[in-house]
């Protein structure tokens, strides 16, 4: 990938302003950005997974990361969601549906859920599985 790093150029790629870069830099934790269309690189619908890289003294040096296509994440998530009883969806940190076990929640749409509908949240990543609570 060839990018233009000259701030004066019309096609300047300011990677330091990208969510996948600044979140690990500012918070010192791993991050998953997306889904988004990678207009600056592959034009693919992707997630970018990153984590901070620190010196031995703890100084921020940059990020290490990888891109995953949305299709590959759906292929991993869908069988796990299919095993869950009831209608559930996997959401990103902005409440967008990544995958679901029902056509009621289409990938990419905004899920409007009540806060008590969170069924599972893994503290290592900013995603959540949501669906109606069952009292039975």
Characterization of the model:
The chain is an alpha+beta fold and 136 residues long. The chain contains two helices and seven strands; from the N terminus they run αβββαββββ. The longest helix has 13 residues. The model has no long low-confidence stretch (mean pLDDT 86).
Residue share in helix: 10-25%
Low-confidence stretches: none
Find the structural class using helix and strand composition: alpha+beta
Alpha-carbon distance between the termini?
A: 53 Å
Order the strands across the largest sheet as they lie in space: 5-4-7-6
In DSSP terms (H or I, runs of 4 or more residues), the helix count works out at 2
Question: Based on DSSP secondary structure assignment, what is the total number of beta strands?
Answer: 7
Q: In percent terms, what proportion of residues is strand?
A: 25-35%
Largest sheet: 4 strands, antiparallel
State mean pLDDT (0 to 100 scale). Answer: 86
Q: What is Rg? A: 17 Å
Order of helix and strand elements from N to C terminus: HEEEHEEEE
Shape by Cα distribution: globular
Subunit arrangement of the protein: single chain
Task: Briefly characterize the structure.
The protein is α+β, with helices and mostly antiparallel strands. The chain has two helices and seven strands, in the order αβββαββββ. 16% of the residues lie in helices and 30% in strands.
């Amino acid at each position: 990938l060839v990018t233009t790093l000259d701030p004066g150029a019309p096609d300047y790629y300011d990677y330091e302003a990208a969510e996948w870069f600044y979140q690990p830099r500012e918070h010192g934790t791993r991050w998953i950005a997306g889904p988004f269309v990678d207009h600056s690189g592959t034009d693919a619908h992707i997630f970018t997974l990153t984590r901070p890289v620190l010196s031995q003294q703890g100084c921020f040096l940059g990020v290490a990361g990888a891109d995953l296509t949305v299709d590959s994440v759906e292929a991993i998530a869908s069988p796990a969601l299919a095993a869950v009883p009831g209608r559930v969806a996997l959401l990103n940190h902005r409440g967008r549906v990544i995958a679901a076990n029902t056509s009621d929640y289409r990938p990419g749409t905004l899920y409007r859920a009540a806060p008590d509908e969170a069924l599972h949240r893994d503290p290592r990543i900013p995603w959540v599985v949501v669906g109606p609570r069952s009292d039975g």
